[in-house]
Amino acid sequence: MASPSLTTQSFSSNIVGPDEPKLFHKEKEDENNQILQKNLLMVSELPSEKGWLSENIHLYQGFWYSTGVLNGLLILQQCFQAQPSDILLATYPKSGTTWLKALLFILTNRTCIDNSEKNPLMTTSPHELVSMLESYAAKNPMNPRPSNSLMHTHIPYTSLPESTKSSGCRIIYVYRDPKDVLVSCWHFVNKLKPNEIPQISLVEAFERFSRGVSPYGPYWDHVLGYWKASVEFPERVLLLRYEDMKRDPCFHIKRLAEFLGHPFTTEEEAGEGLVSKLVDFCSFEKLSNLEVNKKGSHSGFGFPVIENKIFFRQGQVGDSKNHLAREMIDHLDQITEEKFKEFHLINTFSSEEDEISVCPIDNVI
Ligand SMILES: Nc1ncnc2c1ncn2[C@@H]1O[C@H](COP(=O)(O)OS(=O)(=O)O)[C@@H](OP(=O)(O)O)[C@H]1O
User: Fold this and answer.
1) 247-260: buried (b, 16+ CB within 10 Å) or exposed (e) per residue?
2) Residue 341's pLDDT is what?
């Protein structure tokens, strides 16, 4: 039997609709601008560096953010109210967000998994179905809570709004080999950037990523924040690793369902049951080949139009070996070892790297 849905799905947004009186629009716009101005003043006093795209990024509470994201984060810290039934997916960028958004959406709406129009994932990007909190808050500063209880953020654990910790809401954190994260992020940023902005080279991206100066970086502190929380509050924070999920997705989906308090039934787990259907539907091959993800677009991250296809590239473990030189790989592995050693997260990525053939350094662009 299918388990009940965990979320009340409503695809309406909290943005003022077209029927609202013009005056209301104007007042709302003025209020939004006041909040923005106040936050910008605060941001202007923070340490800044050149970002991966054209604009500067700022150091706030030990992590780097673009101005728009930081504005969203400040709004969330000021007034976001989490509910105990909320489910928050947290990730460092390019660690499996799109995949987990799709999986969690289906997991919490188990009745609608099929290839018909009734399944929202057939026609809508996972990024539209599961809102990113900081981006939503920047657009809706007076009411920064999306209507769905399934939400996503890239914000590090230590900077999350207090209510996400005190409410007891569930947090699922996915992390991935930092070398693959760097390469995925570099490809993404260069696809996202407007034509008039020059590309960031991989060497430059590597240098900044290694120093921790990357969007929401340092990567290592990001992972450790959630790792520590999962050790302290295992009933509230679940850590998943992209590579483990690729190896045995069914096993980890079952873990996920149990963590959310809605384990699968024996029937759902068996053979071609719901678990394997769900895993197949959310696989890279299936999702990336849906019409909506090949041809569709949505707005977000401060961009009016983002093509859905740029969230799907290869979906493989270890692609970084095709881009990074041996020296770069060794350097990133060394940082990972130093940072993670005392927390027993050491060498979690070594098995993928044993038989790698790597790019000569001169070939890295
Ligand atoms: N369904 C599925 N299964 C496995 N892997 C997938 C899936 N969908 C997307 N991807 C790969 O995930 C990478 C994008 O990361 P994110 O989704 O975290 O990006 S973002 O933070 O939301 O921008 C990016 O990784 P790379 O291919 O290495 O660049 C995507 O290809």
Assistant:
1) eebbebbbebbebb
2) 84
pLDDT at 363: 54
Superfamily of domain 54-363 in CATH is: P-loop containing nucleotide triphosphate hydrolases (3.40.50.300)
Look at strands 237-241 and 297-300 and give their pairing. Answer: unpaired
Q: Which of 58, 127, 154, 323 is catalytic?
A: 154
For 65-87, the pLDDT digits (tens) are 999 999 999 999 999 999 999 99
pLDDT at 364: 58
Output phi, psi for 361, to 5 deg: -55, -35
Beta-sheet strands, E only, within the chain: 48-50, 56-60, 63-66, 87-91, 150-153, 170-175, 237-241, 297-300, 303-307
Residue 113 has what DSSP assignment? -
For residue 314, the CA-to-ligand 1 centroid distance in Å is: 8
The answer to whether residues 49 and 56 touch, using CB atoms and an 8 Å cutoff, is: yes
Structure tokens at 355: 């038989």
Task: Return the pLDDT at 360.
Answer: 47
Q: How far is the CA of 216 from the centre of ligand 1 (A)?
A: 17
Q: Which atom of ligand 1 lies closest to the CA of 187?
A: 29
Domain ranges of the chain: 54-363
Question: Which pLDDT belongs to residue 59?
Answer: 97
Q: Is residue 20 over pLDDT 60?
A: no
The set of protein residues with a Cβ atom below 6 angstroms from ligand 1 is: 91, 93-99, 180, 184, 187, 282-284, 287, 311-315, 319
